Amino acid sequence: MDHPSLLEELLLEIVKYIDIQTLQRLCLVKKSIHRIIKTYQSSISSHLIKTLFPISKKLSFELFNPGPALQNLFAFNYRLETANWLSAVAYENYETGADYFYPKDGGNISASDSRGDRARASATLGWSVRWRLADISTQIILSRLPNGAQREGNMSTICEQIPKFSELEHEIKRKQLEYVTNLSHAEALGFRDTERIISAVFADRVFDTKRAVHPKISWNGYYQGGGVTDNWLNWLVLREGPNMFKKAWGSEKGNMNVSALIKNEWEKRSKRRLEREINSAKVVEKAILSVTTMGPVVVEMWRREKELFGWAIMGMEVERVYDGIHFRIGRRAHM
Known about the structure:
This protein is an all-alpha fold. It has 16 helices and two strands.
C-alpha cells in the first residue's frame, strides 16, 4: 500500500474522533472520501470498535463470519443498537403481572429510568445470544442451498428449499449446542430475560388457522415445564433472530408482516416437520436454561429480580420514551 497523502492523513485523523453514524454519512458524501475510507477500512474499524465499545460488547456482538471490515463494523453497530432498543422498548411496555414467577409484582420501566439499566443490559446480552444462534442456522442453511435457489428473505422460508430437512435440523442443532456449551452465566441469564420478554409479546396472540394439524398457534404458558414449552414459535424465533422483533415493533406494517409470516410458515408445514423443528428448538433452549439452574446463578437471578421488581409496580404508567409501540406488543393477532 502506498504511503497516504496529506489529504488521506487528515481524513484518517478526523475519522478517529467520529461515531459510526457520522462515518456512514461520510461514505455517502463523495466517492473519493468513500474510496479513502474503504482503502483503510481495516485500521479504521479496529480503532473505532476499540475506542467506542467496551470489550464485552465486542465479544458478544461481533459477527461469526465477518465480511469486509467496514461492512462488519456497520453490522456490529446495527446489532448493538437494535438490541439496546429492543430491551428498552420491551421493558417500557412489559407488564410483569403475566410472569409465572411474579404474578402480582412488577410493571413497566421507562427507558429513561436508570433503575432499569441492569435489566436492560442483561436483556441486551440475551439478544446477542439469540443473534449468534440465528447466525449459526443461517450459515448452515446458506451452505446447503442448491445452485439457483433463493438466498434472500426469511430463513424459515429459505430453508424449505433444502430437501433433507431432518439432516438440516440435526446439523443446526449440533452446531448451536456447541456454541451453547461455552456461554457464560451472564449470557445464559440474559437469554432467560429475553425468554420472559418474548413470553409477554406472544402471550396475548392467537393465530387462527384452518389446518387440521393444530387449531391455532399460541404462546400459552411459556414458563411451563421449567422454561420451555412444546411450541413451534420457539423454533421460529431461533431462526429469524432479533430482527423479527425489530420489524414487528418498528411499525404497524411490520407488525402485520411478521404476523403473516408466522401464519404462512405454520400453515404450509407438515406435522412431521413441525415436530422436528419444535424438538430442535426445545433441546437448544433447555441446554441454555440449564445453566441458570446452578446455585450461584439462581441466587443472582432472584436477587436481581427482587431489586428490579421491588419498585416497578404493576399497572404504574411510566413516561414513555418510545410511545406508540405498546399496541404492537400486546395486540392480538387473529389472522
